[in-house]
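#lab-general

N.A. 3:47 PM
ok so I finally got the sequence cleaned up, no stray characters, all 755 residues accounted for. can someone with queue access submit it? mine expired

B.Y. 3:52 PM
send it over

N.A. 3:53 PM
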Amino acid sequence: MDPQPQYVIPLAEVNRSHESLVGGKAARLAALAGAGHSVAPGFCVTIRAYELFLAESRLEGLIRMELQRKRFEDMRWEEIWDAALRIRSAFLSHPIPSEVASAVVDALAAYPADTAWAVRSSAPGEDSANRSFAGIHESYVGIVERQAVLDAVRLVWASLWSDAAMLYRQELGLDPGRSRMAVLVQAMRTEAVSGVAFGCDPRQLSREIAIVEAVPGLCSGLVDGQVDPDRWHLRRSDGTIVEWRAGRRDEAGMPLPLLEEQDLSHLLRVLTDVESLFAWVPDIEWTGHRERFTLLQARPVTSLASDGEDERGWYLTLRPGMVRLRKLRTRVAEELIPALEAEGTRLAQEDLETRTDEELAAAIEDRMAAVRRWKKTYRDKFIPFAHGVRHLAVYYNDAVRPQDPYEFVGLLQGEDLLATQRNAALRGLADQLRRNPPLREAIEKACGSTSPNASNWQQGALAIVGPVAGGETFLAEFQRTLESDLDLAYENTRLADQPELILRSVLEMARSLGQDVGQNAESGIKTAEKLKQRLLAAVGAKRHEEALETLEIAKLSWRLRDNDNLLLARVESQSIRAIDLAAQRLKSTGRLAPAAKVTENEAGQIIAALRDRLSREIVLPEQERATEIATRARPDETPRQLIGQPAAPGLASGTVRCVRGSEELGRFRAGEVLVCDAIQPMMTHLVPLASAIVERRGGMLIHGAIIARELGIPCVNGIPDAVKLLNDGDLVTVDGFLGIVTVGAPDFDLELAIT
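B.Y. 4:20 PM
back already:
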C-alpha cells in the first residue's frame, strides 16, 4: 500500500532524499540550516500537491492545448504572453484541493497569526550549475493570512507556465507531462539591510574577486531593480576592499556605507562555507547584519549571456514593475513622445524643394539617422512602457477573478488616440459625401480620371469637383487631413502621396451604413467606468490609490503605444519624402529610370548620385514586389480550417479582402473580411467597415484585437501565412469565440445544400 502523499514538509525536516519533492532551492536551504547557517523557518508545498491540483482541475490538457495551438517557433512574444495569462487565470479559477489546503493551513498554524510570509518557487532543476533562472518564476513577499498564502501558492504554480518561463521552455525542459513545481513558504525576515553576494565576478567568472551588493530594507528591492545598491569588490584571499561604490539614493551629503568591514568579512566567510558545502561557487541572497544575519537562498554563479545569445535581460524588461513603470511614464510621456512629435513636425515643415543636391543628400542622411534613433528608443523605452497594460491585466485578474481573462480590455475603451482623431476626420468627410450625392458622384469620377501623382492630383480633382456645391471646401478639408493626419509611412509608402486610395476608403464609408462609432465610443466609456468600479470594489478601500495608479499608467501606456507608432511613422514618412524628391531629380536628369521605385535600401546610391553630378545612370536591384505577390497565392488545396487565437468574440461570414500594402487600402469594401499581416494604427479606419478580421500577427493587446473587441467585430489572429493561404474573394467564416477560420461555405449552409 502506497504511503500517504506528502503535500507539505517542514523545512527543518527536509533532507537529501526529499529534493525530488521539494526542488533544489528548498533542499539547499535545508542543507545550509543543517550546516549551522541561519535560515528563516518555514515549509515546502511539495510537487505532490501540484500534481494533485493538476489532476483535480484537469489543467494539464489546457496547458498542452496552449503550447500546441501553433508551432512554438511561430509564436510572437504577445501570443506567448496571452497563453500565459489564460493559464494563470485558469489556475486562479480552480480551488486548491482540500487535502493540500488543510496541510498548508496546519503548517501556518504553528506560527503567529500575523506572520508575514515569503512564497517562492522551488522547481526541480531551477538555478542549476549550468543555467540561472532568477526572475523567471514568481515570488511573493509580505503575504499575511492563510487565504492570501494559498492564492500565492497557486500563482507560483502558474508561473511555471509564465511568458518568461515559456520563452525559456527549452532550457527549462517545459513539458506538461513532466514539468512540476514545488513552493517554498518561509517566515519573512525584515532587517535594516539586505543584498546579494557572489563568490566570483559573474561577468568574468574570476575567482580572485568576490562581489557584495546591499540595499536598505528588503532584498526584493535589489532583485527587482527598484533600488540602486552599494557595491563592494573584495579580494577573496584576504578580504581587502578593492572597490566600493555607493548606491544612488535620496540622501543629503556623502552617503555612509550600508555595511561595515565586519559585515563584509562575515559575508566572505559565508561564501566560502557555502562553496565548501556544495562544491560550486555561490550566488547568495541574504538579509541582516552579522549578528542578525539570515541566508535567503544560495545557487551556483552563472554568467549571464556568456555565449552572447542569452536575451533573458531583454525579456525581463518586458515585465516592468510599478517602480520602473513610474520612471518610464515620466521619461516617455513627458520627454520622449513630445520630442518625437516635435521632430516629425520639424521635418514636415522643412522646405526640401529649394535645397541643393548636396543639402538634399544631407537631409536624407539626417532623416534616416532620426528613424534609426527613434526605432532604438521604441525598443528600449516605448515597448517596455507599453507593458503597463499587461501589468493591469495581471492586477485586474488577480483581484477580480473574471470568467473572461480579457475582461480588463474594457478598461481601455474610449481612449482618445491619434488614430481615433484621424478616423473621426475621415468619417466627417464621409458624412459630407453621404449628405451630398452630387459631390459624391463627382468624387467618384475624380478617383477614376485624375493623375495618380499626388502633386498633380489636387489640380485634376479641383477641375472635376470644384464646380459642385461644397466641392472646393471638401477638397481643402481633405487636403488638410492628408497633411495633418496621414503624413505617415506604411509599407515603405507615404499615405499622403496616395490621395486617391484614401479617398476611395472615404467613399466606401459614405456608401456603407456602417456602425454608429459615436455610440460605440459612448458605450465603451460606460463599460470602462463599470469595470473600474468593479476593480476598486475587489481591491478594497485601502488599495484604491494603488489600483487607480495602475489603471492610469495602463491607459497612458495604451494611448502612447498607439500614438508612438503613428508619430514614428511620420518621421519615416519624412525620410521617404526626401528620398522620393531625390529620386525625382535623378529621373529628370536621366540618371534614374522613370519607373524605378526607390526605397531606403537604395538610399545610399541616391545620396552618392546627388553628390556626384557626373555619375552614370543608377542601376537598382530588380523590384521583387510582383514575385512576392505571386508567391502569396494559395497552393492547390487550401485547408478547410485555419487555427489561430480567439482575439475578439463573435461569428461572421464574408468574402476575403487581403490588404498587404498601401495600394490595397482603397480596394476594401464594406462587409468584407479584412485579412492582413497586422492591423497597423495607420489603417484602423478600415476596421469599422469589416465584417471580421483575420491577422497573421497574434496577441490580445495588438491594435486589431483591441479595436475589434471595442466595435464587436469577430477577430482571429495568430494564423501563420494568413495572407498566403487566403485569396481575395474566398468565402470564410470567422469564429472569434474559438479562434477558427473556416474556408468555404459554413457547415450549416452545406447541410441545407445537401437537403
